[in-house]
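Saturday, quiet lab. Running sequence design on the structure tokens for the scaffold JK sent over.
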């Protein structure tokens, strides 16, 4: 069975929470679990542990999925908050995931980075982010709406000759959901753009150029939110098949 590690989300102590109020909770989002858990695949939640305990766990995994979630603190990409007190991110999760990204890279195993995940990937590769799209890119679309949430969609332009264009060559639904207010500003080292927003040009997908096409890939949309839904959007199963083909090739030497 393939073991796919999922980076963790965290809830911090909250005395007003009825259950485990004073405790930090480590979790994975349910749509993501359903997306990753297919026949022959075991999802493994990766906790925030000391390196000496985490390393042997990572060594047993066959690939890594980085989940969506909170903002990345601007100090991790060399900036100060553009608005004092706003979009301060989650330094605890940032340190954990940037450390986990380093371990994933060192392992040489496939990585699928989703929403916040693509931003972690970009920051790991020394790129930067727009702290708030609406503030810093006034011409941009609305990329996050709390009420519409994952029903908010826009067009996507796939880079000619790129692995995503090949993956979606037969897909007529060139649209994706949009649930983010931050985005890639300066592209990280050794990353290439695989997709952009058709309406405003913001980066929607990247790949790592020092690995086989698709082996380390990030997307700004949430494929797991479209999984098992009948909607006009890029087929999330195709992206996961691409990821799993790299996982199997890395483990067994076959697609």
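Result came back. Writing it out in full:
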């Amino acid at each position: 069975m393939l073991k796919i590690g999922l980076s963790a989300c965290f809830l911090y102590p909250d005395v007003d929470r009825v259950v485990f109020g004073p405790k930090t909770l480590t979790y994975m989002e349910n749509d993501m679990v359903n997306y990753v858990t297919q026949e022959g695949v075991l999802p493994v939640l990766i906790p925030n542990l000391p390196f000496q305990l985490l390393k042997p766990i990572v060594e047993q995994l066959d690939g890594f999925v980085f989940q969506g979630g909170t903002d990345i603190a601007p100090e991790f990409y060399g900036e100060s908050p553009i608005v004092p007190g706003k979009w301060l991110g989650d330094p605890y999760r940032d340190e954990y995931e940037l450390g986990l990204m380093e371990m994933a890279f060192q392992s040489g195993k496939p990585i699928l980075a989703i929403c916040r995940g693509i931003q972690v990937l970009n920051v790991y590769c020394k790129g930067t982010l727009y702290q708030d799209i609406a503030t810093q890119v006034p011409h941009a679309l609305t990329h996050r709406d709390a009420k519409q949430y994952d029903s908010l969609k826009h067009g996507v332009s796939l880079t000619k000759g790129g692995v995503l264009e090949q993956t979606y060559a037969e897909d007529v639904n060139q649209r994706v959901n949009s649930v983010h207010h931050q985005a890639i500003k300066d592209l990280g080292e050794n990353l290439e753009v695989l997709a952009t927003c058709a309406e405003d040009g913001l980066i929607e997908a990247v790949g790592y150029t020092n690995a086989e096409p698709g082996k380390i890939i990030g997307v700004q949309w949430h494929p797991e939110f479209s999984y098992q839904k009948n909607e006009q959007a890029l087929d999330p199963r195709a992206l996961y098949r691409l990821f799993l083909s790299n996982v199997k090739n890395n483990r067994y030497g076959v697609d």
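Notes for JK: The two ends are 15 Å apart (CA to CA). The longest strand covers residues 191-197. Ask whether to fix the surface positions before the next round.
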